[in-house]
Amino acid sequence: MANGFTFRLTAAVSGKSGKRPPLVVLFDARARVPESRAIDDGTLISEMFDYRLTIEPDRLRAMSLDEALRTAVDLAMASGLVPDGFGVEQARALLAVYRANTIAQRVYTPQAYGGDVLLFRARDESRREDVTLGWDAVVKGTLIIEEIAGTHQTILRSAGNVRVLAEHLRGPRIRSHA
Fold first, then answer.
1. ∠ CA 4-7-10, rounded to 5°
2. Number of domains present in the structure of the chain
3. Dist. CA 118–CA 91, nearest whole Å
């Protein structure tokens, strides 16, 4: 999961040293995760696979964790979402990390940040109404938003997106903040 922890750590470290980084870069991270966001296993498993499994979270919720993970892995393998050899134990470990990240995001409250931020936002996240993902309330410097093709889970996976991100990261906006 791409998230705002880079921002949070950078801001925290720079605040202690008294130096502000010239530009913080975020990859499709929300400033604050809504309290209403579900953290049950069925929802988290569906989110881990970018809602691309051919089963609804409600059906996964009705299963035991082992059965839900087995089902998700089978469906993900059949859809080409995971590499050969990806198994239930890898899915269980991924779920544990995903759950921990979700909980950490829920309890974190971002503080005002006076520096500039470049936010790469997933273009295909149609369920989002706030284009800034909440950062406009946190960033007191300039908030630059670049849309990247894909979803939250895929913007860093496709070679095409990685090339586009690399071009942006080598581009004039980054150099002007160096």
1. 145
2. 2
3. 32
Cα 45 from Cα 60, distance rounded (Å): 8
- d(Cα 113, Cα 23) in Å, to the nearest integer? 11
Domain that holds residue 10: 5-32+108-176
How far, in Å, CA of 175 to CA of 21, rounded? 13
Q: Tell me if 133 sits within 8 A of 30, measured CB to CB.
A: yes
Please check whether residues 101 and 112 belong to one and the same domain. Answer: no
- Give me the residues paired with residue 143 across strands: 117
Q: Indicate whether this model's pTM tops 0.70.
A: no
DSSP secondary structure of 35-65: TT---SHHHHHHHHTTT-SSS-HHHHHTS-H
Q: How many residues does the chain have?
A: 178
Q: Beta partners for 118?
A: 25, 144
The CATH number of whichever domain residue 120 belongs to comes to 3.40.50.1820
Read off the pLDDT of residues 12-21 as tens digits, 9 standing for 90 and up.
444 555 666 6
